[in-house]
Design a protein that fits this description.
Structural class: alpha+beta
Radius of gyration: 24 Å
Shape: globular
Mean pLDDT: 94
Distance between the termini: 32 Å
Helix content: 10-25%
Largest sheet: 6 strands, mixed
Number of strands: 21
């Protein structure tokens, strides 16, 4: 039996359906990331689990027991918000210890617990300060410590890094990863940032318009996307998509963008079938190895980022994005010889937009 079970969960406001039959299971100690664009329902789902927005249908079970009729304060859940929600007139120690004080924990025990969680998150030197004296990253650590000190059975994070700058996001993301590894806590985490999802999660649920598009490990979501929405949403730059028609021999794709070319398919399909071939930028490289399909393509844009160089390559009427090593040499306006590793390509049905399995 899974530790968290969400079954056929729905939430509507009038005629508007926000959640449309959500089914999720998560093992104890797992790190589940709810991922999707703004407005897809992921924060609504998190609030339903917390009891802040009751669903209109379905069930939520924690450790085998339904929590649908439990008040939020009785669910033994701690929530970390993007806004930190710290009390400005309290010290860091007082903010962390506040839920323990409300629970009637003795002062000596509170102090012991506060010091222990402060060591875990490396904020022991900040205990005497007030939130206004802290950086954004420090305030988020304090908010995490306040949640952790309660030792709840489930942690909920609602886009906790969205208010931080890029450098702080990396630092606090590492703190959350370390917290999970050290404590074995069960975490459900909401974000629209695919990097956060890929680096933190043991399980990702990709959502769109109140529905689950795919659930799986980060490797499954990235390497075996269930449909074109997931394929396009995961990865930066996004997966290259080439619509076309299966060649008469069933083993090649005649792309719409360059109908004079035939790209080998990773597995045979019915001739004449309309499909979309997806290939990630990192599977287009300068090295032409066995099984790779070589092309000479005009270079339109060169974008060096330090560790990588992104090329926009003209392929008929389409542009392909290639991710090359930072030391790669390419010039806009020139021609680049590249190899497409089509063994890693993904095929989708053009009409249903679902992945085709070989």
């Amino acid at each position: 039996m899974a530790f968290i079970e969400i079954e056929r969960l729905e939430r509507s406001i009038g005629a508007l359906k926000i959640l449309k039959g959500i089914d999720i299971s998560l093992e104890k100690g797992g790190f589940l990331v709810l991922l999707g664009p703004s407005g897809c329902g992921k924060s609504t789902l998190l609030n339903a689990i917390a009891g802040l927005q009751p669903p209109t249908a379905g069930d939520i079970r924690i450790d085998g027991h339904s929590v649908m009729d439990l008040h939020p304060s009785k669910r033994d859940i701690a929530m970390v918000f993007q806004s930190y929600a710290l009390y400005p007139n309290m010290t860091v120690a007082q903010n962390i210890g506040f839920p323990l004080e409300m629970a009637g924990v003795a002062r000596a025990q509170r102090e012991t617990d506060i010091e222990a969680v402060a060591r875990t998150l490396q904020i022991g030197h900040l205990l005497g300060r007030r939130p206004g004296q802290l950086s954004g990253g420090q305030r988020q650590r304090v908010a995490m410590a306040r949640a952790l000190v309660r030792k709840p059975r489930l942690f909920l994070f609602d886009e906790p890094l969205s208010n931080l700058d890029a450098k702080l996001r990396v630092e606090v993301r590492a703190e959350i990863k370390r917290l999970h590894q050290q404590t074995g806590a069960t975490i459900i985490y909401v974000t629209h940032d695919q990097i956060e999802a890929m680096t933190l999660a043991t399980q990702i649920v990709v959502m769109k318009e109140g529905e689950i598009q795919q659930s799986g490990t980060p490797a499954q979501i990235y390497g075996q996307p269930a449909n074109m929405f997931v394929a396009d949403f995961m990865g930066s730059p996004a997966m290259n998509m080439l619509p076309g028609v299966v060649a008469p021999d069933g083993r090649g794709l005649i792309p719409e963008a360059a109908p004079d070319d035939v790209l080998p398919l990773p597995f045979p399909l019915s001739p004449g079938r309309k499909v979309v071939l997806g290939i990630r930028p990192e599977n287009i490289g300068q090295e032409i190895g066995p099984g790779m399909f070589a092309l000479h393509l005009p270079v339109e844009i060169v974008e060096p980022t330090g560790s990588d160089v992104f090329l926009s390559l003209r392929f008929g009427t389409a542009l392909l994005t290639a991710r090359l090593p930072g030391a790669a040499r390419a010039v806009a306006g020139g021609v680049q010889r590249v190899g497409l590793d089509l063994s890693h390509a993904v095929l989708f049905d053009a009409e249903s937009r679902q992945r085709i399995d070989g």
